[in-house]
Amino acid sequence: MIFGWKEISPNDSYQMSHQKPLSLSQTNILQMLYQPIIGVQAESLYEYLANNHRIKQNYYLKHLFSVLGMGIPDFYQARLQLEGIGLLKTFKKKTDYIFKLAEPLKAQDFFENEILRHLLIHQVGEPTYLSFVDFFDESPIDDGGYEDISKSFTDVFHYRPSQEDLEESSSQLPRFQVIKKGQPQLHESQSTFEWNLFVESMSNHFVNRSSLLDISNKETILFLHECYGIDEMDMQNLVLMASDTNTGVLDKQELSQLVRKQYQVIPSQRETQKEFLTTKDKEAEQKENQNLTLQEKQLVEASQMNSPIAFASSVKQQKGGYISNQEKYVIEEVTKKSQLKLEVINILIHYILVIKDNESIHANFAHRIANRWAQNKVRSAVQAIEEVKKSKQEEEERNKQPRQNNYRKPSYTRTEPIPKWAQEGSKNKKDQPMTQKQVLELQERLKRMRESQVGKEGE
Asked: Of 236, 264, 292, which marks where a domain is finished?
């Protein structure tokens, strides 16, 4: 049964059923393929119903009219257009409605639908229609002869979580099923971890070989290696501790927890693998190193071969101190938020502890330097050293400039007006010693005063 617009009231309520927000691809299909046929108001009504409602919750038509700027006749016509094109089904019970949206057809299905294709060509013309066909063409590009230069997850991201974050993540946060498609991959070919050697070394132990070769467990082992710099021998010991002695099955959650605990007390001289470099990267690095002194080259090499925690621990030990848990947290936070390379973070640590001679690594200062280097696109230890030189030069130039004391207040003297009679004869008046005559006169006057006083006492 079809209801006319006169039977619609702004106070009527409605609910949405089984709809989900539109994807970008669906929005493009609606606006480019459906809108020329159903009109702007019908397309706007569909988008609003799809993107701005919760299912099974009551709404009023008057609110919809207000947002879309529609009257009852406009809404009625737009609703009919959506129903006719197959995008909407409407159900009514007294003054309550239920709207069920249907997903728009995929572009290929739309073009293969003879009725919709002819309607679209009639509205926009054949040239525009052909441009739409080209726009939605999903045929793959022929990449024959091209080299895959994509970086792996660990080449780009250097994850250094704090102990508090790790404990909360492993114990409190809910687990969700992750869709494998589009998941970042750890490329074994680009890793410095000798996987085959590691598996063979485990063959003499109780760990089940199939458990090691499990894709999920393998990804976990490679990730922990790349993230924390754990070599094959140490990884073997960790895997043995994290495996069930009865079944030989590896518990990857237990393995991760063991690594996190060891990471907090990792030896200061532990080395991490140098990041994967292509031939072009190595050539660029060699070119940058040409202008460095021998000491600077040694610093670059140390920054590339050590994790930030190990690097900072080594520097603090050379200064006779030790790295605190708070400093570890600061280093992890700066590394995670700035996404600077590990070698750049190490130069930053050297700048704070050695160049600036600070006793500790403080969060505000470290974040300020890391933020500036990130904005200046510092990509390597050599570039970081150049930033340090630049900062030192700017500081020296500032120190050479004369400083003005902006905090000294000018002194003011209050002057009271002096009457003219007090000013006369006062100019150039100086204290002068008494003459002999004046001294005798003063002594005679004092003598008379004493005699006069004695006479009064005798009466």
From this structure: 264
